[in-house]
C-alpha cells in the first residue's frame, strides 16, 4: 500500500463535554504537528503533604483526556480504493472516529494499530478524523499523552499487499550463500477471483540487486493468499553489532500493470543459545552490555521523532552499550530502525502488568481481552528487524510466583513463538515480587541466605558507593537492593518460580544476582539474563557475566535518564544513623535521576565507570563530589550515585574539603593537584574499579594517572574554569533535510575563554528562533526544574542546556541566544529539500 505521512495540520485540546459548548466554544483548539505529547506542556501540580509514588510516578503531571481533530480532502480518484489510517502509538485508551463514525479503538498506549476508513469517507470533499485519548494513574513512569508517535495514511487497490504483510527470515546461512525466505500476504477485497504476479528483488548493502524471483498467485475474494519465495544470496554480508549490514527486499504486485508495492529491510544473521557458550551471533559469543530505556525523549516529552530516537541509540552505543531493553513496553519503529542501522541489539518488552494492577487504572483492566492483539502488533512490528534478539513477555509480573501466573506465561510465550519462532522469549522476573505475598514466612530463610552470601562474598558485597563490609541482617534487610537479592536466593523463590522460568528460552532476572551462580547448579540448562540491575553495582555484576557462559549479560536501570519515577536515583545524605532513603522525590522533582546518560544526552560519571568495567576505556576518569556534601552520610537508594561530576570548578569553596573519586581498571591510581602528588591508591577489579582521595579545593589542575605493573596506562585531567563565563551555542548539524522526523539539537554551554565548562555560573538563557524552523523542546538535566520544556527561557544546570528545533520547510533556521553578562550567540541551520 502507498504510505503517506499523516502528521500535518492536526488540532488538539483537552477534551470538553459537548454539552458545555452548546452556546459556543469553551476551549479552543491549538494547531499541532505530530508526533505530539499532550501532557508535557501541562502545569505540574505540587502535592499536598508528603510526596508519593503516585504523584512522582508521572513527574507530578495531572494527566487528563485529550482530543485531536484533522480535516483532510479526499479526491474522487480514491473511490474504490482501500484507505487505512495507521497510528504507531496513542497514549492511551484511544478511540478514533471518521466523519463522526466510530472506526476503531486501542486501550494499550504502546501498540500500533490501523483503522479502515474508506467506508466512511466523503469523496471529492473535506473529511474529518477525530481521536480521543486518556492518561490517568495508569503507569509507574511518565507516559505522556495523545498521538505521540507517527501517523500514516495507507492507500491500496482492492487487490494489494497487506499492510505489514511481508515477513523475511534467513533460516539457512553459510559463508558462501544464505537462504532468504520472503512470505507475502496478498489481500483481495474485490468480488472476483484475481490472478496477479509478485516480483521480488533483494538489494544488498551497497544498493545493488543480489537476488530476484517472480511468483504467480491467485487470490480468492475475501481470502488472503500467502506467497512464499526462497531466494539465494551468494557471499552474504552478515549483520552484527560491529558490521550492521542491511539488505532490502523490494516487492511489486502486477496485473497488466503495477497495482501495489512494498519494501522490507532485513539483515542476515544466525542466533544460537546454550548454557556453555551463552548467546552466539554468527558463531561468536556476545555478552550483552545492556541499557534499560524508557520511551520518553527528555525535553521533547513522549513525542517520538526519528532523529531523537537515532541520537539516543547512537549515544548509548558510543557509551559502550551494545543492547537496549525497551522498558516496559514495545519499542518505537524509528528506534528499531536506528538499532538496525547502528548495530544495537534489542530486547523488546510487551507489558509491565498482566492481570494484577500496579497502578489504579492501568492496562491490567484491558489485558485479558486485548493481550493477544497487542502481542500480534509487537511481533508484526519487530519480526523483520535484525536488531531484535528476543521478546520479553513482561516485567516484574507478580503472578510469576503462582501456578496461574505460570500458565499465563506459557500462554504468552507460545503466542510469541507461533508468530515468530526465530527469536528467543524471556520475562523480566523480580523474584522478590513473585513471592511478596509470602514475605512474612520468608524472613528466616532470607536471613540465612543473606548471611551465607555475606560469608561467601566478603568484600565483594560492598557497594560501589563505599558501603562497609559485614552488614548485619537488620541493616541488610533495610536496604532494598540487598533485600531483593537475599530473598531471590531463597528456596521459596526457587520453588515458586520454577515453572514460570521453564516456559522461557532465557530466564530474565531483575535484581537477582544471588541466583546467577546458584542456578548454574540447580538448573544446569537454565540460561540467565540480568534484565534489570542496579547501576551502582556493575563492578560486581560484570565479572560474573564474563566468568559464566550461562549468564548472557547485564541491563542497567537505567541507560538513559527519564521523566517520572521522580527522584528514584537522586543522591540523598543524612547526619544521623537512622534516616533511610526514600524513592519518591518531593516536588518539583521530575527526573528519575538514575540514568548513565542524562536527558540532554550528556554522559554522567556512572557511564564512564561502566565503560571502564566493560573493559572499553583505558584512561582513568575523575568525578568530584560537590563540596557541600563533604562529611555527610550518603543514604541514596541502590539506583543512586554520589552527587559527583567531572569538574574542578567550585567557586566559593576555596580551601574547603572535597572528595575526589577516580575510576580505573589499572592496579593503582595517582592523583596530582597542581603538580603535587596526593599519593597512589589501589584500584582495579579487586577494588571495584574505583578509589577515593580527600583533599581541599584549590583552583588549577587535577590530574589522575593510572599504573599497571608500575607502568603508566593512562591519564585524565580536569582544569578549573577561570574568568567570566561565555555562552556557546553548538548545533549537532548545520544542514538538515526537510522531512518528517528530522530535528536539530542545540547545545548551550557556559564556558571560560579556553572552553572549560563553568558549572558554577548557571543563569537563564533566552532563545529566539526564526525562519524555517520551530522550537519543540528546551531544558536542562536539572532533576527538579521549576520551568517546563515549552518555554524559550531556561535556567542552565551545571553550565549546560539543550534546545531542539524542528524544520518546517526548505530555507534557513536562525537561532539567537542571550544570557546575562554574556555576548549574544547565533547559529544558522540550512534546511534542504529531502
Report on the structure:
It is a single chain. Helices cover 16% and strands 37% of the residues. By secondary structure, it is an alpha+beta fold. It has five domains: 2-156, Jelly Rolls; 159-269, Immunoglobulin-like, CATH 2.60.40.10; 290-440 and 479-560, Alpha-Beta Barrel (TIM Barrel); 616-719, Immunoglobulins (Immunoglobulin-like); 726-833, Immunoglobulins (Immunoglobulin-like, Sandwich), CATH 2.60.40.10. It has an eight-stranded parallel beta barrel, surrounded by five helices. A six-stranded antiparallel sheet has the order 3-2-4-9-6-7, with no helix packed on it. Strands 40-47-46-42-44 form a five-stranded mixed sheet, with no helix packed on it. Helix 2 packs across helix 3 (333-342) and helix 4 (367-382) runs parallel beside helix 5 (403-419). The radius of gyration is 28 Å and the shape is globular.
Short descriptors:
single chain, alpha+beta, Jelly Rolls, Immunoglobulin-like, TIM Barrel, 6-stranded antiparallel sheet, 14 helices, Ig-like_GH2, hydrolase, Glyco_hydro_2_cat, DUF4982 domain-containing protein
What name does the CATH topology of the largest domain carry? Answer: TIM Barrel
Q: How many beta-strand elements?
A: 47
Distance between the termini: 22 Å
Characterize the overall form. globular
Our count of domains comes out at 5
Amino acid at each position: 500500500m502507498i504510505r503517506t505521512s499523516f502528521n500535518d495540520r492536526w488540532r488538539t485540546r483537552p477534551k470538553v463535554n459537548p454539552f458545555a459548548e452548546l452556546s459556543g466554544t469553551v476551549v479552543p483548539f491549538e494547531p499541532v504537528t505530530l508526533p505530539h505529547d499532550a501532557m508535557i506542556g501541562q502545569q505540574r501540580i505540587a502535592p499536598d503533604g508528603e510526596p508519593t509514588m503516585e504523584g512522582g510516578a508521572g513527574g507530578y503531571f495531572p494527566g487528563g483526556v485529550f482530543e485531536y481533530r484533522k480535516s483532510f480532502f479526499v479526491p474522487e480518484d480514491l473511490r474504490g480504493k482501500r484507505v487505512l489510517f495507521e497510528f504507531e502509538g496513542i497514549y492511551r485508551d484511544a478511540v478514533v472516529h471518521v466523519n463522526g463514525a466510530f472506526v476503531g479503538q486501542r486501550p494499550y498506549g504502546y501498540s500500533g494499530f490501523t483503522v479502515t476508513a474508506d467506508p466512511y469517507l466523503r469523496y471529492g470533499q473535506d473529511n474529518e478524523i477525530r481521536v480521543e485519548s486518556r492518561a490517568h494513574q495508569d503507569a509507574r513512569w511518565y507516559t505522556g499523552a495523545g498521538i505521540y508517535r507517527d501517523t500514516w495514511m495507507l492507500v491500496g487497490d482492492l487487490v494489494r499487499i497487506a499492510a505489514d504483510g511481508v515477513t523475511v527470515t534467513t533460516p539457512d546461512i553459510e559463508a558462501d550463500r544464505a537462504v532468504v525466505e520472503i512470505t507475502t500476504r496478498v489481500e483481495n477485497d474485490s468480488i472476483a477471483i484475481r490472478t496477479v504476479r509478485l516480483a521480488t528483488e533483494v538489494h544488498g548493502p551497497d544498493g545493488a540487486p543480489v537476488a530476484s524471483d517472480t511468483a504467480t498467485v491467485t487470490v480468492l475474494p475475501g481470502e488472503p493468499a500467502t506467497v512464499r519465495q526462497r531466494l539465494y544470496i551468494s557471499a552474504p554480508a552478515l549483520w552484527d553489532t560491529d558490521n550492521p549490514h542491511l539488505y532490502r527486499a523490494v516487492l511489486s504486485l502486477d496485473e497488466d500493470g503495477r497495482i501495489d508495492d512494498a519494501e522490507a529491510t532485513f539483515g542476515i544473521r544466525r542466533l544460537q543459545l546454550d548454557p556453555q557458550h551463552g548467546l552466539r551471533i554468527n558463531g561468536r559469543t556476545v555478552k550483552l552490555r545492556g541499557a534499560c530505556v524508557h520511551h520518553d525523549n527528555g525535553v521533547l516529552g513522549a513525542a517520538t521523532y526519528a532523529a531523537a530516537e537515532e541520537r539516543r541509540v547512537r549515544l548509548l552505543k558510543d557509551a559502550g552499550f551494545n543492547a537496549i531493553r525497551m522498558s516496559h513496553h514495545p519499542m518505537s519503529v524509528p528506534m528499531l530502525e536506528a538499532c538496525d542501522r547502528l548495530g544495537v541489539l534489542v530486547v523488546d518488552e510487551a507489558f509491565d502488568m498482566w492481570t494484577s494492577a500496579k497502578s489504579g487504572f492501568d492496562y491490567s483492566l484491558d489485558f485479558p481481552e486485548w493481550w493477544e492483539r497487542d502481542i500480534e502488533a509487537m511481533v508484526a512490528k519487530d519480526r523483520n528487524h535484525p536488531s531484535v534478539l528476543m521478546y520479553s513477555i513482561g516485567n516484574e509480573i507478580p503472578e510469576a510466583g503462582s501456578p496461574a501466573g505460570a500458565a499465563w506465561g506459557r500462554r504468552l510465550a507460545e503466542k510469541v513463538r507461533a508468530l515468530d519462532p526465530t527469536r528467543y522469549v524471556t520475562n523480566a522476573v523480580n523474584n522478590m515480587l513473585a513471592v511478596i505475598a509470602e514475605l512474612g514466612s520468608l524472613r528466616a530463610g532470607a536471613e540465612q541466605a543473606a548471611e551465607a552470601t555475606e560469608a561467601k562474598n566478603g568484600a565483594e558485597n560492598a557497594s560501589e558507593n563505599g558501603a562497609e563490609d559485614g552488614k548485619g541482617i537488620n541493616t541488610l534487610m533495610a536496604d532494598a537492593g540487598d533485600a531483593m537479592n537475599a530473598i531471590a536466593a531463597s528456596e521459596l523463590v526457587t520453588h515458586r518460580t520454577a515453572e514460570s522460568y521453564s516456559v522461557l528460552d532465557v530466564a530474565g532476572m531483575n535484581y537477582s544476582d544471588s541466583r546467577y551462580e546458584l542456578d548454574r547448579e540447580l538448573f544446569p540448562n537454565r540460561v540467565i539474563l540480568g534484565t534489570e540491575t542496579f547501576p551502582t553495582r556493575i563492578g560486581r555484576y560484570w565479572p560474573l557475566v564474563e566468568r559464566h557462559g550461562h549468564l548472557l549479560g547485564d541491563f542497567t536501570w537505567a541507560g538513559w535518564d527519564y521523566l517520572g519515577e521522580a527522584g528514584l536515583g537522586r543522591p540523598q545524605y543524612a547526619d544521623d544513623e537512622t534516616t533511610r532513603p526514600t524513592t519518591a522525590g518531593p516536588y518539583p522533582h521530575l527526573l528519575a535521576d538514575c540514568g548513565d546518560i542524562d536527558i540532554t544526552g550528556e554522559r554522567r560519571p556512572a557511564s564512564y565507570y561502566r565503560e571502564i568495567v566493560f573493559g572499553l576505556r583505558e584512561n582513568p576518569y575523575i568525578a568530584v563530589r560537590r563540596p557541600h556534601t563533604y562529611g555527610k552520610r550518603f543514604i541514596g537508594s541502590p539506583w543512586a550515585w554520589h552527587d559527583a561530576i567531572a569538574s574542578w570548578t567550585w567557586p566559593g569553596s576555596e580551601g574547603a574539603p572535597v572528595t575526589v573519586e577516580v575510576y580505573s581498571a589499572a592496579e593503582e591510581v595517582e592523583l596530582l593537584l597542581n603538580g603535587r602528588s596526593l599519593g597512589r591508591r589501589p584500584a582495579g577489579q579487586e577494588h571495584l574499579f574505583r578509589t577515593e582521595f580527600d583533599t581541599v579545593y584549590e583552583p588549577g589542575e587535577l590530574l589522575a594517572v593510572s599504573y599497571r605493573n608500575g607502568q603508566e596506562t593512562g591519564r585524565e585531567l580536569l582544569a578549573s574554569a577561570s574568568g567570566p563565563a561565555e555562552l556557546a551555542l553548538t548545533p549537532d548539524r548545520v544542514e538538515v533535510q526537510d522531512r518528517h522526523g528530522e530535528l536539530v539539537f542545540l547545545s548551550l554551554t557556559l564556558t571560560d575563554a579556553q572552553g572549560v565548562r563553568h558549572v558554577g555560573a548557571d543563569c537563564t538563557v533566552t532563545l529566539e528562533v526564526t525562519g524555517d524552523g520551530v522550537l519543540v523542546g528546551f531544558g536542562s538535566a536539572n532533576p527538579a526544574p521549576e520551568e517546563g520544556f515549552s518555554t524559550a527561557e531556561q535556567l542552565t544546570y551545571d553550565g549546560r542546556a539543550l534546545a531542539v528545533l524542528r524544520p518546517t520547510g526548505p530555507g534557513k533556521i536562525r537561532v539567537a541566544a542571550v544570557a546575562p553578562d554574556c555576548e549574544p550567540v547565533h547559529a544558522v541551520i540550512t534546511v534542504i529539500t529531502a
